[in-house]
Design a protein that fits this description.
By secondary structure, the chain is of the alpha/beta class. Among the domains are: about 140 residues, Immunoglobulins (Immunoglobulin-like, Sandwich); about 110 residues, Golgi alpha-mannosidase II (Immunoglobulin-like, Sandwich), CATH 2.60.40.1180. The chain has 15 helices and 31 strands. Strands 9-12-15-19-20-21-22-23 form an 8-stranded parallel β-barrel, surrounded by 6 helices. It has a 6-stranded antiparallel sheet with strand order 24-25-26-31-28-29. A 4-stranded antiparallel sheet has the order 1-2-5-4, with no helix packed on it. β10 and β11 form a beta hairpin. α13 runs parallel beside α14. The termini are far apart. About 50% of the residues are buried.
Length: about 675
């Protein structure tokens, strides 16, 4: 039975047209305190009050409906239970709050419904989906569905203990970014996405086997256009029904948690689409968005911008963020397009934007909202992380609000991504002229708590896949990609890789097709996949590679100035003096024999990983398991190592032992 047929049949039983009694006003969920907090912008559990809630009354089951439409003259609830009659079941205003409410006996779970709104202005009438619906029809249908969120979770250990251990800034975070609709698909004529439940075991097993610590899903909230990848949301409280029910998504997240994998959800408070059934012009006025298009219309995306200065909108958005953390046990939210929220002139020409009250370009209301959002999230869920996709040099994005920061836990390092991909796309013979693209990041690397993102945005719109960006013949392309990943994992910051990159997909990402999983049958692709898994393993197991990701104490250049050879060497350290990791990267196809690098300790340095290993598809050159340091000072270090640097490769070495005297040097 299809989901659509299931919904329709469930609403044709006790909820058939003509069997529903009139709206009652004596059953209420909303108190006067709720109204006060909502109107002042401080109600952050609105999902418990507004929307559709199936309840039991003294005469049986029914559903309580509540919707915010302050400039409506009348509001009716319509649906499969009353033949979509636009006048049969009127809701009633709750004083001057702007909320319309009513209890309809006989309406229960599975019933399709919408709100029909008659505005006080210009005779405007419109039919809207419920902004607080927790489940909607499969697009292009647009009805909301009366539903509950009951689910027997099995992740108690995760929620009480393991999440805190996974999400700390001193813990390894290797994030696998995925678009749920195209990770794997049913092939053949059907060519459909897998459901939440169909994906659950496959995805959890794969991510665990590959050693990633987190999965980040492109937005799973209800969106009418599949090609938006989820970034044009109409149902902020409803997971996409393209993949199943709310409980099916809970099952997927539960499965990931039980495998020790954290779940980050992309969240989009920056804009929303103009579809008529959505939030725009909701009650005949610009209720959720700014009325002036210079503030309320995002021309680049043809979407509306939330009015962050309105109290009720702050209640709506912060409630929504907390909803996904509470009801779906999400372990973090990655906030999309933060830069578009911070700047009033974002993607606008002169004369197309309105300055703030001080004459500046900063969106003061959005700044206040973001700070309040992060304060509420960390107050209520201290073990989660909020992550900003912010592409400018706005200061202290991940700084605490009490010192003027925005309060995010982490920020994407877009500068590193652009610089590094630009460098890696150069033919090796030209790389020495662009050496600063590799090293510039360390001038600002600890200004924020960073994630290094190789995200979906870099493999779409003609940009090509990561593999296709690499120069040279096929062998060199794979070697370059292994080297790119090695340099990424050597850098101090958390890591993010979009699906398909881990096995070197040739084609750029296509949202309505599956990843090319057949490629892993070929040695170069399976070798690179193994390399990513081994990088994840090393990153997770070596405290020096993650403990001080956000602390300058954990990083030192050994030599970042060997421009002619296009070689860089660096040291990563943890809190303990037991482990120091030395990473040396050769960005040319020329092997460097007897290449000397300074070292802080004597003794044996074991070669832990080498991207040129034959098992990864490399040429098999290296250092025969490790090298002994000699007492020849170099690069400001008392000792040095003589290494063989393979072509287009990185080697990771670890100091095995040292004397007390040397440790104190």
């Amino acid at each position: 039975m299809t989901l659509q047929k299931q919904f329709r049949e469930s609403s044709d039983g006790p909820c058939a047209a003509g069997e529903i009694r009139p709206v009652r006003t004596d059953v209420r969920l909303i108190t006067e305190d709720d109204i006060y907090l909502f109107n002042e912008g401080s109600h952050f559990q609105l999902y418990e009050k507004l929307g559709a809630h199936a309840l039991s009354a003294e005469d049986g089951r029914g559903t309580y409906f509540a919707v915010w439409a302050p400039d409506a003259e009348q509001v009716f609830v319509i649906g499969s239970f009353n033949g979509w009659d636009k006048a049969k079941h009127p809701l009633h205003p709750r004083g001057q709050s702007g909320i319309w409410e009513g209890y309809v006996p006989g309406v229960d779970k599975g019933t399709l419904y919408k709100y029909h709104i008659a505005s006080r202005f210009h005779g405007y009438r419109v039919t809207k989906a419920d902004p607080f619906s927790v489940f909607n029809e499969i697009p292009p249908k647009t009805a909301s569905i009366v539903w509950d969120l009951n689910y027997a979770w099995g992740d108690e250990e995760w929620m009480s203990e393991r999440r805190r251990q996974r999400n700390g800034l001193d813990k390894p975070m290797a994030i696998y970014e995925a678009h749920l609709g195209s990770w794997r698909r049913v092939t053949g004529e059907e060519n459909r996405s897998l459901s939440y439940r169909e994906l659950a075991f496959q995805l959890a097993e794969y991510v665990q086997r590959m050693g990633f610590t987190h999965v980040e899903f492109l937005p799973l909230m209800d969106h009418p256009f599949f090609g938006s990848w989820g970034y044009q949301i109409t149902g902020y409280f409803a997971p996409s029904s393209n993949y199943g029910t709310p409980q099916d998504l809970m099952y997927l997240i539960d499965c990931l948690h039980q495998r020790g994998i954290a779940v980050i959800l992309d969240w989009v408070p920056s804009h929303f689409p103009t579809d008529e059934h959505g939030l725009g012009f909701f009650d005949g006025t610009h209720l959720y968005e700014h009325a002036d298009p210079r503030q309320g219309l995002h021309r680049e995306w043809d979407s509306f911008i939330f009015n962050y200065g309105r109290n009720e909108i702050q209640s709506f958005l912060i409630s929504n963020a907390l909803f996904w953390l509470e009801k779906y046990h999400a372990d973090g939210l990655r906030v999309d397009a933060v830069a578009s929220m911070l700047y009033l002139d974002y993607a606008r020409k002169d004369g197309e934007w309105i300055p703030n009250k001080y004459g500046g370009r900063e969106n003061l209301e959005a700044i206040t909202f973001l700070r309040r959002l992060n304060e509420e999230i960390y107050k209520n869920y201290p073990d989660v992380q909020t992550i900003a996709e912010e592409s400018t040099a706005w200061p202290m994005v991940s700084g605490p609000t009490f010192v003027g920061g925005l309060g995010f836990g982490l920020k994407w390092d877009m500068g590193w991504m652009h610089d590094t991909l630009e460098y890696m796309s150069k033919e090796p013979v030209h790389r020495k002229y662009h050496h600063n693209k590799l090293t510039f990041r360390m001038l600002y690397a600890f200004h924020e708590n960073f994630i290094l993102p190789l995200s979906h945005d870099e493999v779409v719109y003609g940009k090509g896949s990561l593999l296709s960006k690499m120069p040279g013949d096929d062998w060199q392309k794979f070697a370059n990609l292994r080297l790119l990943f090695a340099y990424m994992y050597a850098q101090p910051a958390k890591k993010l890789l979009f699906m398909g990159g881990e096995f070197a997909q040739w084609q750029e990402w296509v949202h309505d097709g599956s990843l090319d999983w057949n490629l892993v049958e070929f040695a170069p692709h399976s070798g690179l996949q193994r390399w990513v898994a081994d990088l994840n393993r090393l990153y997770r197991n070596e405290p020096a590679l993650h403990e001080l990701d956000c602390d300058p104490v954990g990083f030192e250049w050994v030599d970042c100035n060997d421009v002619e050879s296009s070689v860089v060497s660096l040291i990563r350290k943890g809190r303990s003096t037991d482990g120091i990791v030395l990473v040396v990267c050769n960005f040319t196809p020329v092997p460097r024999y007897s290449y000397r690098v300074g070292a802080p300790r004597s003794g044996f340095w074991r070669e832990m990983l080498n991207s040129d290993g034959a098992m990864y598809g490399g040429s098999g050159q290296g250092n025969l398991g490790g090298v002994e340091a000699t007492s020849i000072a170099l690069h400001g270090r008392p000792f040095s190592l003589t290494l063989n640097l393979p072509p287009l490769a990185a080697v990771f070495l670890k100091s095995e032992s040292w004397t007390t005297r040397e440790a104190n040097i």
